Amino acid sequence: MGTMQPLARRIGRDHDLARSLWESGWHEARLLAVLVEDPSRVTQRQMNAWAGDFDSWALCDTTCIRLFRRTPFAWDKARSWPCSPREFVRRAGFALMASLAVHEKAAPNARFLALLPIAEAAAGDGRNIAKKGVVWALRAIGGRNSALNAATLAVARRLTTSDDSTRRWVGQQTIRLLLRSTRTPRTR
């Protein structure tokens, strides 16, 4: 990325180049495609196709954070992709949730409260990439403000009472991370 970011700045936004780079299939070319693609020209069809090509968490997360969250379809995909049976598409849904939670400062709590049941429903996916994505999304949503923190902790506590070990793990990790981030430093 240290090499590609300056290159992407020199190139600027280029939809056609991004498409060609992505179609090459090369990991590094696809990362550069994400950096030069124009979010205003991205279509839902393109998002679905690119998400279907994800084969690593790095490509998935970078695409969601750097590109997809800037499209008008980000919220729709954050709601629909977590229901996909495909691991990296599911991860992309949670990466979008996390990215939107961090970057969409003006978004009302209601938008994030609507995402919590989706994350809770997917918390039993034992695949590593997916379950860590759920924790990431829950932590980011819960880190926005005290109301969302309380709502997310309620979800996490329910998960810890599950008979399913993956759901318990997601709940425990979410609680640990949210409580760690809200602790006040000790004074001496």
Summary of the model, kept short:
The protein has a domain at 73-182: Leucine-rich Repeat Variant, CATH 1.25.10. It has twelve helices and no strands.
What overall geometry do the principal axes of the alpha carbons give? elongated
Return the structural class.
Answer: mainly alpha
CATH topology of the domain at 73-182: Leucine-rich Repeat Variant
The profile of the biggest β sheet is:
none
Q: What's the name of the CATH homologous superfamily of the domain at 73-182? A: Leucine-rich Repeat Variant
Percentage beta strand: under 5%
Average pLDDT figure: 94
Poorly predicted residue ranges: 184-188
Overall CATH architecture of the domain at 73-182 = Alpha Horseshoe
Tell me the Rg in angstroms: 17 Å
In whole angstroms, the N-to-C terminal distance is 41 Å
- Helices and strands, in order, run as HHHHHHHHHHHH
Helix content: 55-70%
Enumerate how many helices there are, as a single number. Answer: 12
What top-tier CATH class of the domain at 73-182 fits best?
Mainly Alpha
What is the β-strand count?
0
Characterization of the model:
With 188 residues, the protein is mainly α. It has a domain at 73-182: Leucine-rich Repeat Variant (Alpha Horseshoe). The chain is 70% helix and 0% strand. It is built from twelve helices and no strands. The model is unreliable at 184-188 (pLDDT under 50).
